[in-house]
Design brief:
Helix content is about 25%, strand content about 35%. With about 90 residues, it is α+β, with helices and mostly antiparallel strands. The longest helix has 18 residues. The mean pLDDT is about 90.
Length: about 90
């Protein structure tokens, strides 16, 4: 869990132009924390974190699947899959 919200590299590019119009490019990399476990533990119930490789963590508000309009169909589908799995064993 400590590595889940561990640091990541942040790249910063800069261009400098001198008095004669010559350009100089520079790239710097620094380590920044993403989201420490202490912050994850304090998220309220019903809150999730979506973690992608190419983006900062996204805080999402979750809702129970039982509150969806298609909850009855989801229940039926789940029951069907559970029966198929039980037959397989």
């Amino acid at each position: 869990m400590p590595d889940l919200g561990g640091p990541t590299d942040e790249t910063t590019d800069s261009v400098t132009t001198d008095a004669y119009g010559a350009h100089s490019n520079q790239r710097s990399i620094r380590r920044i924390p993403i989201m420490p476990p202490a912050v994850l533990r304090t998220l309220p119930f019903g809150t999730g974190v979506v973690m992608l490789r190419s983006a900062r963590p996204i805080i999402a508000t979750l809702r129970p699947w039982t509150a969806r309009r298609d909850a009855a169909q989801l229940r039926a589908d789940r029951a069907e899959i559970e029966q198929l799995l039980q037959r397989a064993h």
